[in-house]
TrEMBL record:
It comes from Anaerotruncus massiliensis. Homodimer. Its cofactor is Mn(2+). The keyword Acyltransferase applies. SUPFAM superfamilies: 2-isopropylmalate synthase LeuA, allosteric (dimerisation) domain (SSF110921), Aldolase (SSF51569). Keywords: Acyltransferase, Amino-acid biosynthesis, Branched-chain amino acid biosynthesis, Cytoplasm, Leucine biosynthesis, Manganese, Metal-binding, Transferase. Pathway: Amino-acid biosynthesis; L-leucine biosynthesis; L-leucine from 3-methyl-2-oxobutanoate: step 1/4. Its EC number is 2.3.3.13. Mn(2+) binds at D15, H202, H204, N238. SMART domains: LeuA_dimer (SM00917). It comes from the Bacteria. This is 2-isopropylmalate synthase. One of its GO terms (biological process) is L-leucine biosynthetic process.
Length: 509
């Protein structure tokens, strides 16, 4: 099957920002725009410049910094809006003016108070005006899905004749069904006088069909789709970009389409937006929800451990999530339990594992989720954390403060007696020390998590550091104990590295 590329038009910064509670300030919009470019979207709709001086400034600044994606500014079919949109996007490497006017009877009569003929005339004048300013003009027929089809086509023909190179068919109020959207796009495509333009769709999610409507529109021939990160947008939101992109990718056999999205940036983009607007996604949201790649039940965990594809249709890696998550709880089975014990670096006999598993099940009845800490407490003396000490800590010196960048010198000793020392800088003393260790051990590891807590009381409390690192698809946890928090952190990191080495060696046997 031949594949064609569908353009991704992101409107997180415009329609997305129209969702209550999702406003972003100037710097946040710039950060988001940079990430959208990294993600590889074809068009960034950066805002509605006439709506406020702040919006204008943000669109203008985004236009100046974004180099690869087209930067669009929205405008009503009003000269002042269009001029303002152009003034904001004119410095972009690829500027676009996006003009819109409603075409449904209900919008024309009650909202615009315009006759259909007046709408056609206004579209002709305003698209022509926009085109006199900008080489790339998109025209949207607001409420297209509730418009008379022949009138809609007439308006699109008018817009194309006046210079629009993209025509957009919005399901503004999320009223369409997937079949209807398919028919509408196919109808418009078949009846346009000049179909050599991009046909775009913009689907809202009022009935939860935004993504399905978008995918059906693509099947009918849409060449551009408008969507938002995490599906934010007016009312119930817009079609979610991550879901569209991953559906096209995962079901390439069915859709025969690709996008220019670097899917490994999807999770990061979602997280960035959630952090900026302070609104997270539901845990069961496809692709980026906390549970999207989590498995809790024993039968599923056993299947995934044996072969990931038994219960995963996509790889978490593909969307930038480091690895799937085995959640240990009351539905888990002994395979997942034994796997986690091994990941934590413990070697236990089958008998001890079976005994610990019984206690684990009792605990799981009382506790919703069992953490690594719980398991460590649970296996207690039954487990012998006898990981081979490939590296031991010999000495360290760390310099840090508010006026210098942190520097650490760490000396490690190998089990064959060889000593190695390295110096490194970091964001803080712990980062500097970890960087120095990385230089010595030269392994491809990633620090996933670091925590510190006092395990005894008083001024001389012992600090226990826990470092979770990932290495070649495995996660291992190291622990370090000392009254000096730097020393316990370094010991925990070295301990985690020793466990990772042991695991690698085991995998090679
Ligand atoms: C479907 C969508 O998402 S469309 C985008 C929606 N986003 C926004 O509205 C956010 C930004 N909006 C704003 O800041 C303001 O609404 C503005 C600056 C655009 C306009 O503000 P105001 O001049 O105060 O008008 P207000 O918002 O109250 O009413 C909208 C006016 O625009 C007219 N209008 C609406 N859409 C269009 C259009 N596409 N082309 C021309 N005129 C339009 C309405 O008929 C109404 O006209 P009227 O003032 O002559 O009655
Ligand atoms: C401006 C248009 C594209 C819009 O946001 C809508 O119709 O929902």
């Amino acid at each position: 099957m031949s594949t064609r590329k569908v353009k991704i038009f992101d409107t997180t910064l415009r329609d997305g920002e129209q969702s209550p509670g999702c406003s972003m300030n100037f710097n946040e919009k710039l950060e988001m725009a940079r990430q959208l470019e990294r993600l590889g979207v074809d068009v960034i709709e950066a805002g509605f410049p006439v709506s406020s001086p702040d919006d204008f400034r943000a669109v203008e600044a985004i236009a100046k910094i974004v180099k690869n994606s087209t930067v669009a500014g929205l405008a009503r079919c009003v000269e002042g809006d269009i001029q303002r949109a152009w003034d904001a996007v004119r410095h972009a490497a690829h500027p676009r003016i996006h003009v819109f006017l409603a075409t449904s009877d209900i919008h024309m009569k009650y909202k615009l108070k315009m006759t259909p003929d007046e709408v056609v005339a206004r579209v002709a004048d305003m698209v022509r005006f926009a085109r006199s300013l900008c080489p790339d003009v998109e025209f949207s027929a607001e409420d297209a899905s509730r418009s008379d089809r022949d009138f809609l086509v007439k308006v699109f023909d008018t817009a194309i004749a006046a210079g629009a190179s993209t025509i957009n068919i919005p399901d503004t109020v999320g009223y369409s069904t997937p079949n209807e959207m398919y028919d509408l796009v196919a109808y418009v495509k078949a009846h346009l006088q000049n179909p050599a333009v991009d046909i775009s769709v913009h689907n809202h999610n009022d009935l939860g069909m935004g993504v399905a409507n978008t995918l059906e529109s693509i099947r009918a021939g849409a060449t551009q789709v408008e969507c938002t990160v995490n599906g934010i947008g007016e009312r119930a939101g817009n079609a979610a970009m991550d879901e569209i992109v991953m559906a096209l990718r995962t079901r390439g056999d069915f859709y025969g389409c690709t996008t220019g999205i670097n899917t490994r940036q999807i999770y990061r983009t979602s997280k960035l937006l959630s952090t900026i607007i302070g609104v997270g996604v539901a845990p069961n949201k496809p692709i980026v929800g906390a549970n999207a790649f989590a498995h809790e039940s024993g039968i599923h965990q056993h299947g995934v451990l044996a072969e990931r594809t038994t219960y995963e249709i996509m790889s978490p890696d593909d969307v930038g999530i480091y690895q799937n998550k085995m959640v240990l709880g009351k539905h888990s089975g002994k395979h997942a339990f034994a796997d986690r014990i091994a990941e934590l670096g413990y070697r236990m006999s089958d008998e001890d594992i079976a005994e610990a598993f019984e206690r684990f099940k009792e605990m799981a009845d009382r506790k919703k989720e069992i953490t690594d800490r719980d398991i460590e407490a649970l296996v207690g003396n039954a487990a012998i954390s006898d990981v081979k000490e490939t590296y031991g800590l010999k000495s360290f010196v760390v310099n840090s403060g508010t006026v210098i960048s942190a520097t650490a010198v760490v000396r490690l000793v190998r089990d064959d007696g060889e000593e190695k020392e390295h110096v490194a800088r970091g964001e803080g003393p712990i980062d500097a020390a970890f960087n120095a260790i990385d230089r010595i051990v030269k392994m491809d590891t990633k620090l996933e998590n670091w925590t510190m807590q006092a395990v005894t009381e008083g001024e001389d409390a012992l600090g226990e550091a826990i470092c979770k690192i990932s290495c070649n698809g495995h996660t291992v946890t190291g622990r370090g104990l000392s009254p000096d928090i730097l020393e316990s952190s370094i010991r925990a990191y070295v301990n985690a590295i020793n466990k990772a080495i042991a695991m690698e060696e085991k995998a090679m046997i």
